[in-house]
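idk why but the lab printer keeps eating my pages so im just putting this in chat instead. protein + heme C:
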Amino acid sequence: MVFWLKSRQIASWILVPLLVAAWSLGMRARTPVEAGQNAASQKQPDHPEFPPGDGREAVMRLCVKCHSPNIILASGQDRKGWENTITKMVHLGATGTDEDFTDIADYLTANFPVSSVKKIFVNSATDKQIAEVLEISIDDAKALIAYREKIKGFKSLEDMKQAPGVDVKKIDAKKDCLVFGNAAPPPST
Ligand code: HEC
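predcted complex ->
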């Protein structure tokens, strides 16, 4: 009897910590996965249009201070062209080492070469430009701009597809011609 009682007590002494340990192990097992996901999403900032490669990091570090890096997506250029753009940015106040700028020139030349695809900034394009690129009527383009003003700019392709009466298929077909984000650098404070 006494022994029985004791063993039950002992059992709970052992069982409770065991349960706690198992529970906390379970918690711990989940944490690294979550941490991994966080690290991954921090590594891949929200600019999937920029393919991975040497120089991407430098672009995201140095070319995002005054305007969205999306400004880069609108202009495909050869190496000379990109070097000229970088030189212009340095005159405007971009800072970095020579190595950074060489990496950026290499990266941009490789990933954003001269292209025949005409691109537009959807948030600053005129009705005429939008009509031309999407191959829609001027009236449809005007409606798109009215919606653009209402929602204070398209942040993504999805935003644009929400516009009333829009032909989603045409937007999808031309998505490589559409650059989101602001063309104009934000007003300096
Ligand atoms: C110190 C602020 C600043 C930094 C940093 C900066 N830019 Fe700019 N960028 C500007 C301004 C201002 C304009 C608008 C110039 C104009 O309208 O003439 C601009 C415009 C552009 C344009 C549009 C085309 C053109 O030539 O006007 C591109 C492309 C561009 N920047 C690329 C870059 C790249 C690549 C980097 C990183 C090396 C960079 N920018 C860093 C200020 C900056």
